[in-house]
Design goal:
mainly alpha; 27 helices; extended
Length: 658
């Protein structure tokens, strides 16, 4: 039998006075006991780590198990139960060794001093003793072996199996006794260092969090990306913390919204946590109705009497050509049919959303019950100053399904109100044409402000300003970020694309043709798709050279055709994610501001003009410079992707003065 001192022991845990581990504030949870119970049952450490461990690193889970083994043994000794202390320190594999079994059995019964019987030989030993000449066949030898040792072998195996079973049952009973005594449930008032390891607790405390209540409030405020507010905590650790909090939701008295646990794009719009219903009682306080009713169109659920099925302005149901019986369903059909781009869809949805919410909350009417008088009140009174502001006006850039979301961020100008009138008039006209509405309540509303033709003269760059802007981003040894900025600037000016189109560009949209006359490659950019006409734009060789170098700096093949499918042309500074439309706006705005600061020394007026530039100014500049170079308006219409030639005709010829 192996001496106990020779057995492999876990890594020692430093102790302080009174025989307490160095983490005296650490609480033992149900998950800790479940983790250790699975460990004693022999479950693979990887499975236990994924199911019960609060740590992202498997090595931390292994260290935590060693700490649990010491902490539970100390607790058992304090409870005057040395047998349980010894049992809980046994490793799962040690129950298969008779040395450990005898060691544990000696604590409850005297060690037997009888001389052990001759052990049962294995088959090879029996063969050497019984049949050294190989006379018997294999089957005959096995039969002789079974007849020679029929009882001893079976009894020996049964004893070992029975003893292991008894020890495992005693282990489980000892662990259950300690769990009933020591396991605690988290409370919002508990300090973080009593539930999380010291290093993790310090990181949370550095972000101003001291209790579990503070952590819960932070997650509710910043949702599933709350970890960006805490230095040195990544998404994996944050996910494990959130999982642990959800598992203890009952004791914490807190139920997380689905938006706090996963990205909004992964949550269906009709999820129960997002849906909000309009109350039937019209006498509701502004604060209450803001939290329960002012919701995005996707999550809005009006009562049956206000959903439009019985609207007073509904057309004949027999003539209705829309497969929609409610107002919200009809509006969704209109959005799907008329919104040709994502930008247009958002603008149309915003105006329809505002009108539907105003009708339900302020007028207690269905959208299909609005009259011409209601339309006038909405345009001439409500949109001028949405009141009460607490109900209707909120901060910008708030997530649509956040309870703090509001459909307005302030008063609307005359031009914005005219845009609302135009969109809502088109919405109702489309529904009248589909026989869903009987009349158009916005048809009699006069334009709010006179039509002003598009004037791009104040929102373009001269050729000199463009040359100065381009020169300001050139450097001898550009970094990946600087190379990205240069490519973004060149693509925006030489293609005239909208910012959303620029941000969504991938290598798949580039095509190459061989120019036989010049013996070089001619690259084109294919833009468009569902809802838009596909257009092909030539890419200058200088722009392709910059793109080749940018792709190479990102660790990709310089030839776009050799890059993985779907590789974005423009990414963030680290090259990890595609550049968003808002990110592109930010990047180009910084370039405009830096160039304006350099130009201030030479020409303060031109510098001030350049400092006001936006991403869309490059599209205007592309159009005007193309017209000034002799491009026909019809060709320019196709390049810009304008639906009507009248839109392209609004661009005047550029002046040839500096």
């Amino acid at each position: 039998m192996q001496h106990p001192s020779k057995l492999r022991r876990p890594a020692p845990v430093s102790l302080i006075d009174d025989d307490v581990p160095v983490r005296p504030l650490q609480r033992l949870t149900r998950e800790d006991f479940a983790l250790y119970r699975g460990y004693l049952d022999g479950v693979a450490l990887e499975q236990l780590h994924a199911r019960y461990s609060p740590y992202a690193d498997l090595r931390r889970t292994r260290t935590h198990l060693a700490w649990l083994r010491d902490a539970l043994s100390i607790a058992a000794r304090r409870a005057q139960d040395p047998t349980a202390a010894r049992l809980l320190r046994l490793r799962p594999g040690s129950l298969n060794r008779t040395g450990d079994e005898d060691e544990v059995a000696s604590t409850t019964s005297a060690r037997k001093s009888a001389t052990p019987a001759r052990p049962t030989p294995d088959l090879e030993t029996f063969r050497a003793e019984t049949d050294p000449d190989g006379f018997y066949s294999e089957a005959e030898l096995l039969e002789l072996y079974a007849s020679a040792f029929p009882i001893e072998r079976g009894q020996h195996e049964n004893k070992r199996r029975s003893r292991r079973q008894r020890l495992r049952e005693r282990q489980a009973a000892a662990l259950a006794r300690l769990e009933a005594t020591l396991a605690e449930l988290p409370d919002p008032s508990h300090a973080l260092d009593t539930w999380f390891e010291p290093a993790l607790a310090k990181r949370l405390e550095a972000a101003g969090l001291t209790s579990l209540a503070d952590l819960l409030a932070l997650i509710e405020r910043y949702r599933w990306r709350w970890y960006v507010q805490v230095p040195r905590i990544g998404p994996k650790t944050a996910a494990r913390i959130s999982t642990w909090l959800v598992a203890n939701a009952q004791s914490l008295r807190h139920e997380f919204s689905v938006l706090a646990l996963m990205p909004r794009r992964k949550v269906p719009a009709d999820h129960a946590d997002l849906v909000r219903s309009v109350p039937r009682d019209c006498h509701v306080e502004a604060s209450d109705i803001s939290a329960t009713v002012v919701a995005p169109l996707e999550a809005l659920r009006p009562p049956s009497e206000l959903d439009g099925r019985a609207g007073t302005n509904r057309g004949s149901k027999s003539d209705n050509r829309l497969p929609a019986s409610s107002d919200l369903a009809a509006i969704r059909k209109w959005l799907a049919a008329r919104a040709r781009s994502e930008h247009t869809r958002r603008a149309y949805r915003r105006e329809a959303e505002r009108l539907v919410l105003w009708a339900l909350i302020e007028k207690r009417k269905a959208f299909s019950s609005l009259t011409a008088q209601d339309a006038g009140e909405y345009l001439d009174s409500f949109l001028k100053d949405p009141q009460p502001a607490k109900r209707w006006v909120g901060e910008r850039r708030v997530e649509r399904f956040d309870v703090a979301w509001r459909p307005f961020d302030g008063r609307l100008s005359e031009r914005s109100r005219e845009t609302s009138r135009s969109i809502l008039r088109a919405l109702c006209a489309w529904l009248v044409d589909a026989r869903y509405l009987a009349t158009n309540p916005f048809s009699a509303q006069q334009p709010i402000c006179p039509y002003e033709p598009f004037d791009s003269t104040g929102r373009t760059l001269t050729r000199e300003q463009w040359s100065f802007l381009l020169a300001s981003v050139e450097c001898v040894s550009p970094s990946v970020r600087e190379r990205r900025d240069q490519c973004a600037l060149l693509l925006a000016y030489t293609t005239g694309l909208r910012r959303a189109e620029l941000a969504s560009l991938t290598v798949d949209q580039l095509s190459c043709e061989r120019e036989i006359s010049r013996h070089s490659d001619a690259w084109n950019l294919i833009v468009g798709g569902p809802g838009r006409d596909v257009r092909t734009l030539p890419i200058p060789a200088s722009v392709m050279t910059a793109l080749h170098e940018y792709l190479s700096d990102r660790g990709l093949p310089s030839d776009p055709r050799a890059c993985p499918q779907g590789t974005p042309l423009l990414t963030d500074a680290r090259g990890a994610r595609p550049l968003t439309a808002h990110g592109l706006t930010y990047v180009l705005k910084k370039l405009f501001e830096r160039a304006a600061a350099k130009l201030m020394v030479k020409d303060s007026a031109a510098a001030e003009h350049l400092g006001r530039a936006t991403t869309h100014w490059l599209r205007h500049s592309y159009a005007i410079h193309a017209l000034d170079s002799g491009v026909e308006r019809r060709d320019l219409q196709g390049s810009l992707g304008h639906a009507r030639l009248a839109t392209t005709a609004a661009y005047p010829l550029a002046k040839r003065t500096c």
